[in-house]
Predict the 3D structure of the following.
Amino acid sequence: MRAPLKPLDQALAELLAQARPLAGEDSVDCFEADGRVLRQDAVSPLQVPPQDNSAMDGYAVRAAECHSGEAVLPLSQRIPAGSVGQPLEPGTVARIFTGAPVPQGADAVVMQEDCELLDDGRVRIKARPESGQWIRRAGEDIQLGATVIAAGTRLAPAELGLAASIGLARLAVAPRPRVALFSTGDELVMPGTVAPEHMPAGSIYNSNRFFLRALLERMGCEVTDFGIVPDRREATLAALREAAGSHDLILTSGGVSVGEEDHVKPAVEALGQLDLWQIAVKPGKPFAYGRVNRDGQQGAGFAHFIGLPGNPVSSYVTFLLLVRPFVLRLQGAARTAPRALPMRADFDWPRGDKRREFLRVRINDQGGLELFRNQSSGVLTSAAWGDGVIDNPAGQTIARGDRVQFISFAELLS
Ligand code: AMP
Ligand code: MG
């Protein structure tokens, strides 16, 4: 009897339970930290902005002195950004520039467009200022002692700027997972080695290798690409042993289908352990998780092993659904699940599949979702064409106008 299919959520939970965050940390320059996962909370040793400052080029005033809406007051000082002025003398205004500290006594800034510098050097304030206007308050962005970026955050450009704004030049981040990438399949040919017109019958170009390497690198991994592993037992064992010695994860594509004749499955079993899963997901389904012991023995540590299906879209989608969270968790990322947003389907899908399905769709100009015409797991065009996937429950049909759950590739690939 065939084992029942494993629900995707269960597969993900079991997989993540294996993904203990990697030990150690890297100290990296802020310039090099994009995409890395922060190890310790970034706590602010100061407030940002450090003091009340002007949000405009204009004049710092006492609002009460300008209430007529036509006040003419002498200019007592000039405060460019980067310098600190004197307390504002009553009955005068100060020339001030964006970012410059507001002088003591002033409680508003009037933008220069609402002022007129007279020939006698005095300033006409032609607007009636509100107390507090155009002043950025000390600490309004960040308070002293505030956690600015929490441990487990994947750093993006805004976080790098934020870290810099509290004076951090280096950040403690999770080590990059070291991933060994294998392709399997005797039919595979590397582009560039055989011209399209000379491809032998039955052979295809290795496409998975290209997107898997790029996906891993986007997820912060350091990839060693072992290429196409020769389909011989000794060669496969040797490659797995070598990879396990110096990698955290061995990722393969192909050869995990039921009854597949290749050497990866038995070789992983010989060097560690392997579970073959049939996941209730489409595209996808065959998936393997296991371990390859270092030095081929127990107790010396191990490399995780993940075997993805060979069909390109299955490989791509299962990477995004399962491997992505796994490698983020290895880095201690707090958030591994992508956000699903409700969106409108602008198509009909009259036959719900028995498995939970991830349909490749594109956002149209009307804010709805269009379906790619061919959802076959071999048609990689759908992944390039799409803006993301609909997470469609098992058995669910879709009628034009229905709300569906959309997950964006922009998020899955970032
Ligand atoms: P498998 O999972 O090995 O049974 O492969 C399923 C399908 O995916 C077969 O049609 C393979 O030829 C194809 N395939 C496997 N690996 C790759 C690859 N690296 N690039 C493109 N197609 C692949
Ligand atoms: Mg194969």
Notes: The two ends are 41 Å apart (CA to CA). Residues 183, 185, 187-188, 204, 206-209, 253-255, 257, 260, 309-312 surround adenosine monophosphate (ligand 1) (CB under 6 Å).
